[in-house]
Amino acid sequence: MNQIDLMKELHVQSDKKIVMLVLDGLGGLPGPSGKTELEEARTPNMDRLCRQAVCGLSTPITPGITPGSGPGHLGLFGYDPLEYTIGRGVLEALGIGLTLRPTSIAARGNFCTLDPQTGVITDRRAGRIPTSKCAELVAKLRAITLEGVDITVEPVKDYRFALILDGEGLEDGVTETDPQKTGLRPLEVRPLTERSRKTASLLNAWIGKAFEVLKNESPANGCTLRGIAKDPGLPSYREVYGLNACAIATYPMYKGLARLVGMDVLEAGDTIASEIETLKSAWDRYDFFFFHVKKTDSAGEDGDFDAKVRVIEETDAVLPELLALKPSVLIITGDHSTPASMKSHSWHELPVLFVADNIRPDGVTEFGERACMAGGLGHLRHTDLMPLAMAHADRLTKYGA
Amino acid sequence: MNQIDLMKELHVQSDKKIVMLVLDGLGGLPGPSGKTELEEARTPNMDRLCRQAVCGLSTPITPGITPGSGPGHLGLFGYDPLEYTIGRGVLEALGIGLTLRPTSIAARGNFCTLDPQTGVITDRRAGRIPTSKCAELVAKLRAITLEGVDITVEPVKDYRFALILDGEGLEDGVTETDPQKTGLRPLEVRPLTERSRKTASLLNAWIGKAFEVLKNESPANGCTLRGIAKDPGLPSYREVYGLNACAIATYPMYKGLARLVGMDVLEAGDTIASEIETLKSAWDRYDFFFFHVKKTDSAGEDGDFDAKVRVIEETDAVLPELLALKPSVLIITGDHSTPASMKSHSWHELPVLFVADNIRPDGVTEFGERACMAGGLGHLRHTDLMPLAMAHADRLTKYGA
After folding, report:
1. What is the ipTM of this complex?
2. B6 with A65: Cβ contact below 8 A
3. Interchain CB distance below 8 Å, A30 and B378
4. Which end of chain B has fewer CB atoms < 10 Å from its terminal CB, N or C?
C-alpha cells in the first residue's frame, strides 16, 4: 500500500490545526563566515521554539537529487515525487497563474527562429527576445481558432509562452516538437496512444496556423511546443487527509501547486506581513495552512547570501503572530535547498523544526543545518512530514488491530 | 521510477572526477582494546580529511542483511542488490578470472561421492579433496565435447570447479542438480521455461559424460551443478551515469564485478602501491575510479585484528598520493563489514568518509565507526552513495521543473 492510500484509510477528524511554513530554498551551505544563511540569521523565535520542538534533516526526493519546485512541494504535501509527476506544460501554466480544468491540456511554448528557405531551426530561443516582444507575438497568436476547443495563449518570459487547449477528448501522451538542436525542422506532434490522436491533430493544426501568423516576423518566425500535459489529477487533501486545507502564497507557481492537491488558495498580498494577515483572518475556516515564503529562494538563486539571511530574519520576526494563533502542529522547513554559494536549487537536506504536543524533545537549541544533524527526528524524507503532522494532530487512527 | 532509470534521465557531463576507495570488509567490531580495527589504526590522513568531509554510516543492503561480495559491490555501484542479482555460477567464474560473453552460461560445480551401487550421494563435497586433486579431475573433464558449444572447465578451490558453456541459444532458467542432502541421487537439470530447454539438455548431456569420466575415481566419482546463470546484463556505468569508469583491483572477483557494469579493468599489479601507480597513470583517461583494497577483508576473515589494522594503515599511507590528483569527489568506505572477531562478513554498517565541494561539514574529526555515528550524512544505504557522488560532481540535473 502506498502512503497516500494509507493516509486515506487511517485519517480521522480532530479540531487540531496544522501549519506548514515553507521557506522556499531554505537550506544552505557555509558562506564566508563559515555559517549557512540560516545559521547566520538572528532567529530568536525559531531558536526559542527549538527548545520545545524536535528537529531533523529532510531529503526532498532521494539523496543527491535536486528537485524543481513541483517535486519539492509534492514531497512536502506527502505525494512521492517519483510516483506522482506534473508535466512541464502544467507547471508553466501554473507559474503564470493560469488555471487548468480536467479537460485542459497545457504546453510550454518557445519562440524560435526558422530559416525561411529550408524551415530548419537556426535559433531555438529566437535570440532570447524580450518579454515585451513575446507579449506582442502572443497577442497575434490569440487570433487562432480551432473548432471545438477554447484556446489560451499567455506570454511567460523572454521567448517562452504557455498554450492551453480546453475541450472534450483532449488527452496526455503526445510527443514534443522541439528537435532539441538547430539545423533540424520542428517536429510534428505525434500521438503515443489511440486516445491522444485528437490532441495531436489539434496541436498540429494550431502550429500550422501559428507558423502562418509568425512567418514574416523576425527573429521569432516559428515556435516549438514542449511538456504537453494535463493536470495530473492528484487525489485531494480532503480525500487523502480529510483536511480542509488552504494555501497562503504570494507567487502563482505555489498557488497553482496547492490547487493541484485541492487546497483553497487565499488572497495573500505580496509580503510576509500580508500573508500573516491572511492567515489570521482565515484561521477559523481551515484545518491545514500551507504558508509559503518565496524570497529565501530568490535570494539564493541570486547568490545574495545577506538577502537570504534577511528574509529568514523577517520570517522569524512574524512568528509570534503565527504562534499566537496556537497551531497544534507547526512545521518549519523548505521545499529544497538553494545555497547562495551555488546560485541554484540543490539536493542538500532541509532543516526541519517540528512543534507539537507529544513530541520527544531533543537537545537542539538553535535552528540551523548543523544543529539539526543532532535532532531527534534524524534524517527523514519530505514525504514523512505529513504523516507525522497528522499523527501529532490526533488525525490518524491505528494501523491494524 | 527506480534509481537506475532516474540516473539515466538526470545525468549530465562535467569534468569532475570521482574516486570510490573501497576497503573490502572495512567495518569492524571492538577488539581486545575496546576499539574497532579502523578506530585502532593510526590514520592521520583519513582523520585530517574528516575535518573537511562529511561522514556517515551506510547499510550495504538493508539492516541485518550480510552481503556477499556481489551484492555488496552492486550496492556501492548504485544498483539495488535486491533488484539486480548475479547468479552464483557467474560469480564463481568471475572469481577465478573467467570472462563471460552474452552467449555464455556459467555454473558452479561441486565434486561429490556417489555410492557405486545405488548412485546416491554419500558425500556432497567428496571428502573436501585438495585443490590439486580438483585440478587433476578438471583436466580429465576437459575431454568432454558437445556439439555447437564451447566448454570451459576450471578448478576453483578444494572440491569446487567452474563450468561455462558458450554458444547460441543458451538461456537462464534451469534447476540445479544438487539435492542438498546425502542419500539422494543427483537431480536432472530441468528447464523452467520453453527457452531454456536447450540449455537443460546440453547440461544433462555434459553431466552424463562427466559421470562416465569420473566413474572409477575415488572419492570424487560424481559432481553436481549449482547457480546456473548468465551475465545479468546490467546497464553500464556509461548508460546509467554517463561515466567513463575504470576499476583498479588486485583480485579477479572485483575485476569481474566491475566488468559486469561496463568498467574498464586496468592492470593494477597486486599491491596497494602498484594500484596507486595505476591510478596515476590512468588519471587523465577516466571520470570514475573504483579503487579496491582486498586485504582488509582477508585479514578480517582470518580473525587477524592486527593484520586488518595494518592494511588500513597501509591504505592511509598512500592517501596523499591519491589526494595529489585532486579528485572532485572522494568516497572512502567498504562493501561490507568483516569484523576480525566474527571471522566472516557481517551486516554492520560501513563508515563513510565523503570529501567534495558543496558539503556541509560536520563535527567528525577522526575516521571510525563510532565517530561516524555523529556524521552529517547520518545513516544511508550503499545505493545512496553514487547519486550523492554524481550530485557533488555536478553530474546531475534537476528533477522536474
Report:
1. 0.91
2. yes
3. no
4. N
